[in-house]
Design goal:
14-stranded mixed sheet; 422 residues; alpha/beta; Aminopeptidase; binds zinc ion; 14 strands
């Protein structure tokens, strides 16, 4: 049953407020870790916590920053037509002046494919044939191709808008996040990809590729607002959202989760409670969840002692139904299981409020909650899978459904409140 004091909290949670935070965060431009937009978002979040009278906790991190200095260029040599696309993040640039070579289709890009196809001196073409995001991690394939002499990589994405994937290997172990050699790459939308396919069909296989990327280690912060408890000052429940994004504007991924954190901070910071709350803004989620990993390493013992539960809000407004991810898979680690009692508690509160979240398995990587589960902090992750605008320039605030934010915020607030009081 929802108590009168819980209804009081719920009434104060406004989806309009969360949407304003999303609009403000998206106005900062590119928020990849270490960029100017990351800095602006951090300042915005810090000021917000300060206004609410929260104690500010800053955890310094260093992470590879990715900047696309200008858009990549793909030109069909026979016609002079240029095609637009995006470079995968943390992928290398082409040599000065770019590369000119023939395109060769590498099928699924497996070792077996490469046994049969000569890619030496060529640019590989990889087509995502399903509707999903299975070819998000390009590192392993690029390594395979580069070892056989390939010069570059073109990926065709199934969605009609520009999309950014990653040059990482897709591993959970931070030490294994990259593999070398890498390849300069461009990802084309389905629309631009169709133009390329048409030209290849006419025998126009020679293309010119220029990729203008910059990668350098930069400093950033995981920034938290902390409200101490009245009886157990250091014990607390937490909600986390990563503020960085693969490509701007990043409304669903993950201004949506960040907005939940900021909105719940407004409401819960005004409550007197036996235990406290921590509102966490991470960065470098795009990048093997490095920010959350470093945060957990920096505070491991203290978190194990005092953090009673963590809710991760990552992409909670656009796409399929919002679910709790009960199991996550990485290629290089055992399956990660979310905390059963916490997921049950979420389900119970949702039921009492008339909401419903299903459960699911994440087949191609696990969010930041996995870093907390790793060190023994009970955690769950809210996720709306299958966002068609994922990592695209179309992930804008107008796509956000503010009322799905409300569902996640209401349930999270009651769960956090109950854990603070019981
Ligand atoms: Zn995300």
């Amino acid at each position: 049953m929802i108590s009168p004091s819980e209804w009081d909290i719920i009434r104060k949670i406004k989806s309009r407020r969360a949407l304003e935070h999303i609009e403000n965060l998206c106005a900062f431009g590119d928020r990849f870790v270490g960029t100017e937009g990351d800095q602006k978002a951090m300042d915005y979040i810090r000021r917000h916590f300060e206004r609410l009278g929260l104690e500010i906790k800053e955890t310094p991190i260093a992470a590879p920053c990715f900047i696309e200095e200008k858009p990549p260029l793909l030109r069909i040599e026979a016609t002079g037509e240029t095609l637009a696309g995006l470079s995968p993040y943390l992928g290398p640039p082409t040599i000065k002046g770019g590369i000119t070579a023939d395109v060769v289709d590498v099928g699924e890009g497996t070792d077996a494919d490469f046994e049969e196809i000569d890619v030496d001196g060529k640019i590989c073409l990889l087509i995502e044939k399903g509707l999903g995001y299975l070819k998000f991690w390009l590192g392993t394939l690029a390594q395979r191709a580069a070892r056989r002499g390939a010069l570059g990589l073109i990926v065709i994405h199934p969605m009609p808008w520009p999309y950014r994937n990653s040059m990482e290997a897709g591993n959970s172990k931070v030490a294994d996040r990259f593999c070398y050699p890498q390849l300069p790459a461009i990802t084309l939308s389905a629309v631009e990809g169709a133009k390329l396919m048409y030209e290849l069909g006419r025998g126009h296989t020679r293309v010119h590729l220029e990729v203008h990327t910059l990668i350098e280690e930069r400093d950033s912060l995981v920034i938290s607002g902390v409200k101490k408890g009245d009886e157990f000052p250091d014990e607390r429940t937490a909600i986390l959202g990563h503020r960085d994004t693969a490509v701007p504007p990043g409304a669903n991924d993950n201004a949506s989760g960040t907005a939940c954190v900021l909105t719940l901070a407004e409401v819960l910071s005004q409550q007197d409670s036996r235990r406290g709350f921590e509102f966490i803004s991470t960065t470098a989620e795009d990048g093997a969840t490095l920010g959350a990993y470093l945060y957990c390493q920096a505070h491991k013992d203290e978190l194990q002692r005092n953090m009673k539960a963590l809710i991760d809000a990552d992409m909670i407004s656009v796409g399929g139904q919002i679910k709790q991810v009960e199991k996550g898979l990485w290629p290089d680690a055992d399956p990660v299981y979310a905390t059963e009692w916490l997921m049950d508690m979420v389900d119970e509160v949702a039921e009492d409020l008339g909401y419903y979240f299903g459960r699911m398995e994440a087949a191609w990587g696990v969010a930041e909650s996995a870093r907390f589960l790793d060190i023994g902090v009970p955690s769950t992750w809210f996720w709306a899978p299958d966002d068609p605008y994922y990592h695209s320039t179309e992930d804008s605030p107008d796509k956000i459904n503010p009322n799905s934010l409300k569902a996640v915020m209401d349930v999270s607030a009651v769960v956090m409140w109950r854990l603070a009081q019981e």
